[in-house]
Predict the structure of Serine--glyoxylate aminotransferase.
Amino acid sequence: MSNSRIPGRNFLFVPGPTNIPDRILRAMNVVSEDHRSPKFPELTLPLFTQLKKVFKTESGQAFIFPASGTGGWEAAITNTLSPGDKVIAQRFGQFTHLWIDLAKRIGLDVIEQDEEWGTGNNPERIEETLKADKNHEIKAVFATHNETATGVTSDIGAVRKAIDNAKHPAMLFVDGVSSVGSLDFKQDEWGVDVAVSGSQKGFMLPAGLALLSVSQKALKAGETAKLHRAYFDFQDHVKANATGYFPYTPALPLLYGLRESLNVLFEEGLDQVYARHHHLAEGVRAAVAAWGLKPCAKESKWNSDTVTAILVPEGFDAAKVIEIAYKRYNLALGAGLSKVAGKVFRIGHLGDLNELMLLGAIAGAEMAMLDVGIPVTPGSGVAAAQAVYRANPILQA
Ligand code: PLP
């Protein structure tokens, strides 16, 4: 068949950027306006209050930066730490690796702890390292709620407990780029000092906003922190945001989009959003099992409800599955990154999705695997996911 026109919508199943609901797209379709007008705070002030509800913090301060998640990492570090400060960071996937790399380039002394890819943060090791740090030289622990490269969710409550057990004053920084707005995030309960997220995943927006939530302890640490900061200076934002403004020209359409995104999340209800993500993920996991394949996550306790990385059998190239899915079936699957390149393909199941959309992705992945010769039973993954979805549908009749 000819490729001169590609009918229908592209099936976007990378784990971010995610599908943008039509109403959010429409909300971003705005004419330019004066971002210093007296009316502007009517748009912006509620954004900060609503964001805090998503991060689940009462006492924290929300920030909206024109950046992607990587900019959020940088903002977190430069506003709270000094050159040469020691931090603990565990590496178990490409994004934990990139955060470590950025921290080192900025000038931190990173205690790098490698964990097996397919596992996540290791609280016991964090506790041990902190207990050994009698002089409290370690200033922060970096944890990653959801490692998007391997489809692994870590227990941030357990990381908090490890810090408390060690009676250590280190701050806790959490990457929530592929979790906040999709998985329950409990900033205050977990004592998270800096939480970092981005607009293009659970918030169902284009990339372009780094969304942070910062504890009073981390804001205070900023008073003596000596790393250079300018564009991402928390204090410039604290001052301007207090009256609903920004220290520089904000990305206006994205702010309108964020308002609608928050409306969408609260209309569905955060608990329902999290339950839906779990339900959709369970269908994908059932499909993987029915194919006779394994997720990259080593044990079920690591399973992520926002993305599943699927290991292809020895001798097959996962990149080929992704290429065929895209070229033949207009389905975008997530690539394997770095250490797991060619070994896994990923199905992102976060954002504005429902059961039939997932069944389309599972069917497409199944066809692409068959096309490259992976011996899965045709229809097996779809049937297994259907059984999960029919047992407890999102919509109650
Ligand atoms: N952290 C995680 C867990 C991610 O998944 C990503 C991107 O996918 C990032 C950080 C980097 O975010 P960005 O690409 O928005 O800079």
